[in-house]
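hey can u check if this looks right to u? its 306 residues, i copy pasted from the old doc so theres a chance i mangled smth
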Amino acid sequence: MSRVAHVTEGRYAPPVPRREFVAVSADGARLHVEVHGEDGAPAVVLAHGWTCSTAFWAAQIRDLAKDHRVIAYDQRGHGRSPAGPAHSTTALADDLVAVLGAALAPAERAVVAGHSMGGMTIMAASGRPEFAEHAAAALLCSTGSARLVAEAQVLPLRPGRARTRITGAVLGSRAPLGPVTPVARKVLKYATMGPGSAPDKVEACARIVHACPTGVRHAWSQVLAGLDLDADVARLTVPTAVIGGKDDRLTPVVHARGLAAALPNCVGLTELTGMGHMTPIEAPEAVTKAVRELTMLYLDQKEKTS
């Protein structure tokens, strides 16, 4: 990859994994998987969002790996995972259950956290027996189940067909993002982050997003534009917490509230004032705290020490 795919210094620089391996999905797609922390610790599985990579979770990995086993993987076409033959929510679900099966022992359970498209991945996998076998609880960060383009507020236009059409064209553009410049940082901050986001957070997000291949970004934008996972939300029966940023333009907080109302077993809705779409980087302490609380509550002592 010709561009620097992430920052290399500071809290958002990805820590070195203890080990790495490749998980193979149902259609043969190969997924880069990282493991941080020690065997026997409570397991956490992290699924990143559209145009991101495992580097997006650097702050969570750095903190949680002190006393958890953290498993993070690159979605197909992102980071170090090659593009697979399919782009669909079925493929996302296949990939997640492949990672769960490869990284966890039979019947071993974990807290599964997803940001944006990673949260959609969890919803898509909710009805799979492999997910039921391995998921003790879930965390949905800055995500939604349907009407993503119609609800997006990236463009300062009134809601309606015109805004939806133009938003879809912008988000689905085939134009390359180019290098990370001052103008590019401003655009990314406006579209995806809260107005008070510090420069190091903007830089971390920009490096990751701009490293995503243009074709991959476009292909997954088409999947997200037609997303309808409402039925899958009803099947997500494990204890599930929801986090949303009140200044999120991509998946406005109405999505978080809708998920909290629709989930069969919602155990908390956190609305973060001043935060945008990139909550794991914008509010790392809040996201990490939510994961920790889920592991404390829903991974029993036997699983934590086995």
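Residues 107 and 133 are 6 Å apart (CA to CA).
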